[in-house]
């Protein structure tokens, strides 16, 4: 009775499945990825960037509940469903936290919410848009499950929407670094000589510049913004990939299968892409997992410094910047929660990298 031999991919996959922390981290990353994509469907505040401000209820504790009066606007919202799902709803109505209200014919009298035991302003408006029997459509209790930030925005919604930047910067940065690093490392390792010396000079110069300083310089050159940060981070992370690929190709090009490919008359491009790269991608994959975690940390640091994602975009690093002084003001969770999110996501990618390293190690 013969048994079918397992491929190296199947063996690596089987070893990865046996690694509890690797599987758990992968599941956690998939969940965060789904949350980042469909954040506006999950977030209590589905406005763009979860930026609905209510200054009168700033810095409220988790579980805080208040009656919210919604005054509709005459401006029509012509957004499509997909636009609302992926970019949030353009909130044209006005939301006002109130403590009490009453109706008198076609007029609505309400008292605005005020903190610290103060009495809010009482106002009267025409209530043509609202009737006594349908008041619950425009006045309803709103619960802030994780409280509000210093601008009165829902903290839970900001955390959910902020996952999008931290998650996708990893993909974009790793993709850019992979494309540049694999190309430069392949050319340097395969051709050697003066080509290798020139590329290694570029790599050494790039590596000698402090990463954060280089990113700041690129960001200032490209301008502050969402995509500029992604590109800047990606352009500084290709060096490690290039060095690993170069070293692997220098070893692999001496192998017999490369010699056989040359004897068959295959061109250099085919030999590199079809024969060498598929056999050396294991360490590159591990490097990419580490770079993914590094990209998240770098983006958070840039946002903390004010040159990352710009307001009103939700970013975990920017949330820490806005609230780090609350650590000594009695509400440390405002800074700890986004910091905890960064820590968990980075740890998940590091554990995945360790699991991939063990699964792809042919010596085990």
From TrEMBL:
InterPro entries reported in the protein's UniProt record: BP-dependent_transpt_permease (IPR050366), MetI-like (IPR000515), MetI-like_sf (IPR035906), OppC_N (IPR025966)
CDD domains named among the record's database cross-references: TM_PBP2 (cd06261)
Record has Transmembrane as a keyword: yes
Protein name, per record: ABC transporter permease
PANTHER family xrefs: D,D-DIPEPTIDE TRANSPORT SYSTEM PERMEASE PROTEIN DDPC-RELATED (PTHR43386:SF1), OLIGOPEPTIDE TRANSPORT SYSTEM PERMEASE PROTEIN APPC (PTHR43386)
Location(s), subcellular: Cell membrane
Keywords: Cell membrane, Membrane, Transmembrane, Transmembrane helix, Transport
Naturally occurring in which organism (per UniProt): Olleya sediminilitoris
Keyword Cell inner membrane: no
Domain of life: Bacteria
Membrane topology recorded in Swiss-Prot or TrEMBL: Multi-pass membrane protein
Family matches, as Pfam families: BPD_transp_1, OppC_N
Family to which the UniProt record says this protein belongs: Belongs to the binding-protein-dependent transport system permease family.
Membrane-spanning ranges: 20-43, 165-191, 198-220, 226-245, 276-298, 333-356
Gene3D superfamilies referenced in this protein's UniProt entry, alphabetically: MetI-like
């Amino acid at each position: 009775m013969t048994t079918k031999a397992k491929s190296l991919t199947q063996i690596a996959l089987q070893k990865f499945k046996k690694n509890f922390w690797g599987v758990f981290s992968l599941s956690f990353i998939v969940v965060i990825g789904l949350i980042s994509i469909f954040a506006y469907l999950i977030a209590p505040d589905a406005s763009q960037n979860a930026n609905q401000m209510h200054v009168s209820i700033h810095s409220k504790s988790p579980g805080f509940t208040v009656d919210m009066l919604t005054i509709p606007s005459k401006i029509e919202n012509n957004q499509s469903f997909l636009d609302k799902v992926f970019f949030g709803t353009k909130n044209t109505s006005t939301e006002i936290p109130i403590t009490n209200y009453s109706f008198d014919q076609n007029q609505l009298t309400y008292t605005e919410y005020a903190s610290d035991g103060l009495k809010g302003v009482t106002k009267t408006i025409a209530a043509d848009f609202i009737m006594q029997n349908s008041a619950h459509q425009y006045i309803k209790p709103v619960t802030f499950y994780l409280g509000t930030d210093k601008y009165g925005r829902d903290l839970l919604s900001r955390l959910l929407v902020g996952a999008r930047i931290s998650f996708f910067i990893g993909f974009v940065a790793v993709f850019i670094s992979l494309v540049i690093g694999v190309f430069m490392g392949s050319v340097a390792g395969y051709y050697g000589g003066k080509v290798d010396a020139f590329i290694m000079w570029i790599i050494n110069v790039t590596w000698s510049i402090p990463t954060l300083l280089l990113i700041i310089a690129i960001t200032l050159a490209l301008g502050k913004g969402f995509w500029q940060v992604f590109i800047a981070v990606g352009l500084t992370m290709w060096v490690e990939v290039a060095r690993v690929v170069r070293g692997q190709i220098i070893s692999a090009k001496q192998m017999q299968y490369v010699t056989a490919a040359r004897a068959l008359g295959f061109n250099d491009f085919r030999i590199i892409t079809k024969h060498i790269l598929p056999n050396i991608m294991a360490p590159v994959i591990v490097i990419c997992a580490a770079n993914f975690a590094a990209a998240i940390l770098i983006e958070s640091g840039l946002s903390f410094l004010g040159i990352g994602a710009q307001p009103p975009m939700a970013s975990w690093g920017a949330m820490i910047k806005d609230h780090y002084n609350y650590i000594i003001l009695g509400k440390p969770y405002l800074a700890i929660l986004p910091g905890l999110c960064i820590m968990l996501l980075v740890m998940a990618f590091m554990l995945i990298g360790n699991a991939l390293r063990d699964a792809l190690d042919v010596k085990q």
